[in-house]
Description:
Layout (H helix, E strand, L loop, with lengths): L6 E3 L2 E3 L3 E3 L8 H10 L3 E3 L3 E2 L11 E7 L4 E3 L7 E7 L8 H14 L4 E7 L5 H16 L4 E5 L12 H4 L2 H14 L4 E4 L7 H10 L4 E4 L3 E3 L21 E4 L4 H14 L4 E5 L5 H10 L3 E4 L1 H4 L6 H17 L54
Parallel strand pairs: 3-4, 3-16, 4-9, 5-9, 9-10, 10-11, 11-12, 12-15, 15-16
Antiparallel strand pairs: 1-2, 6-7, 6-8, 8-14, 13-14
Amino acid sequence: MGGSLEVTFTGIRFDNPFLLSSAPPTESESNILRAFEAGWGGVVTKTIGMHPVVNVAGPKTKFLRYLPESGVLSMNRGRQGVLHSSWNWELISDKPLDWWIPRLGRIKKAFPDKVLIASIMAGSGSDKELDHWRTLARACQEQGADGLELNLSCPHMDRPDMGSNIGKDQGLCSFVTQVVKEVAKVPVWAKLTPATADIVLEAGAVFRGGADAVSSTNTFPSLPLVDPETLEFEMNVDGYVSFGGLGGPAILPQAVAKMAQMTQAFPEREFSGIGGIAEFAHALNFFLLGCGTVQVCTAAMLDHAVGPNVIKRLVAGMREFLDKNAHRGFTRLEDFRGLLRDRVVSHSQIRRPEDSDYQGGYEQEGYAEPEPTSAPKV
Ligand SMILES: Cc1cc2nc3c(=O)[nH]c(=O)nc-3n(C[C@H](O)[C@H](O)[C@H](O)COP(=O)(O)O)c2cc1C
């Protein structure tokens, strides 16, 4: 048995590269303490803000499951079936900053060697809002937070200057990051939304603003499905629903695709992978594309709220992987991080049975004339 699970990410040392992401598993002091006891290398707190938060009436999260015998895909058939995804419309922490401050300090004192990242969020439409970012950043780092994660990706904000509405605007992404960096004494991670056309642009913007890492991804915009009997959305309040966020197994391949785009564009930068991770084999996708840590939400929510069994499997899975691949010289994450980053190529670069049969979809196949510089060599 050899190899080490320790990693250093944005200058912070972790026992292992597995974190709980900002979500219900990290919404309280007791949850975070339990998470550290269970073995998570770090946690990102539920997002802390300056605005009072009032959630919708009724459940904030449900789990969509597939029943293979009947083909039913439903949130309302109990725990039977195969997990497809989580769906939520939960806002950020409903506890104010004053509630969080002493707790962050106590958590850090209880587990000085575990990594505590504070997720923070404010607006961007006025000087007062920009000051909120500064206040949150200063307060959390003063309590010993090892890093800050900027929530530029909450999908449930009506305000045009907050959450994923910041994450959809390159200028705002960059500016908000810069504002926090001016006061930050600890590393700053920017959590991006997948709800944009080309996430590479927003990643570039936050790096220009000084971000030390990008965390990706938050949940994907989605709606609960309609119950064919009642003709109501499976989750609704008084018959009404709004766009919420999809997480869990269904988003793993999509989250991986977003990550591949960014790690290729910025191979020297640091990335924390999120989306659909429950097993080491899932996390491995993000590591092989270049991520230095990964984060988990849905799988942990379904495992005693903080994922004690999930973290055990992740750690055991990584140890087993290192042992099995010792002959490749893998002794730690750094030895296989980014190994497959350059294997994602444009479609026309994929080999055809006969090279001469395919011309990259250009004029030889009867399509439009290529741009002078864009015709790929096949
Ligand atoms: C109920 C719920 C609440 C969440 N709240 C937050 C939040 O406050 N801040 C944040 O950055 N992400 C939040 N997220 C997003 C998760 O941190 C994570 O990015 C997303 O669920 C994808 O990971 P998963 O597939 O492991 O669930 C939330 C997710 C869920 C399901």
